Amino acid sequence: VVVSDYIGLGAPGVHTYANRLDQGQTILDAARAGLAIDGLPADSPVAFWGYSQGGGASLSAAEYAERYAPDLNVAGTYAGAPPTDLPETMRSIDGSAIAHVLGYAINGFSERSPEFRDAVLAELNPRGIDFLRSAATSCTGDSVLMWGFTNTRMLTRTGESLSEIVERKPVVKETLERQNLGKAVPNAPVMMASSPSDDLISHDQ
Predict the structure, then answer these.
(1) Cβ(203)–Cβ(195) under 8 Å?
(2) Separation of alpha carbons 175 and 171, rounded Å
(3) Per-residue pLDDT for 185 more than 80?
(4) What is the tens place of the pLDDT at every residue in 13-65?
(5) Largest CA distance in the chain
(6) Residue 73 backbone dihedrals phi, psi, to 5 degrees
(7) Which residues contact 114 (CB under 8 A, 6 or more apart)?
């Protein structure tokens, strides 16, 4: 069993939360490293498993495996509650107990794209800037205590929600939509699990 820490979680850099390419590649690299460390044959079967963020990462690994890691013998993938549509996930998480994870995602995408960063920062008020700064050093427990149930309308200069700003700013919308899953065909079976009553990662995705 190999548990990935992702970029920025135990490894250097800003955590690229919900970045499907970074997380999928990290999972595939971890599978290769696990086989090598244990001295197992390179064609030993591997499987991916994850829930929520991990579900998205596992599903990304499944979709990306044939292109990035054709040497891996992927047997299958389990993805629980994967956030497959980031704009939709943003709408459902806004105002929830884990609203602060939106800051994790914005920080990660800002690290990869100065254009995205500048477009978002231009829309935030001082409280919104604090929201992002604290997200850079918070875990989920911290975030729930400090920013739980925050409505993102309280973070912007115009009083718009972050979802409304996404629709108004093409560079932001395009950046997020590039992360949507379901655009590639996995090379092994995938089982996705989702609850119709999930109030965070909507079942409709």
Answers:
(1) yes
(2) 6
(3) yes
(4) 899 899 998 999 999 999 999 999 999 999 999 999 999 999 999 999 999 99
(5) 57
(6) -95, 85
(7) none
- Return d(Cα 121, Cα 128) in angstroms, integer: 8
| Amino acid letter, 122 | A
Please tell me the distance from the alpha carbon of residue 22 to that of residue 43, in angstroms, as a whole number: 23
Q: Distance of CA 144 to CAs 96, 108, 135, 138, Å?
A: 9, 19, 11, 10
How is residue 27 written in tokens? 């999972």
Please give the Cα distance from 27 to 24 (Å, whole number).
5
What DSSP letter does each residue of 116-156 carry, written as one string? HHHHHHTTB-HHHHHHHHHHTT--HHHHHHHHTT--GGGGB
Beta-bridge mates of residue 193: 80
The token pair at 62 is: 């499944």
Give CA separation, 196 vs 55, 161, 200, 204, in Å. Answer: 16, 25, 11, 8
Picking from 175, 177, 130, the residue whose alpha carbon sits closest to that of residue 155 is 130
* CA 80 from centroid of its chain's CA atoms: 13
Q: How far apart are CA 133 and CA 71, in angstroms?
A: 40
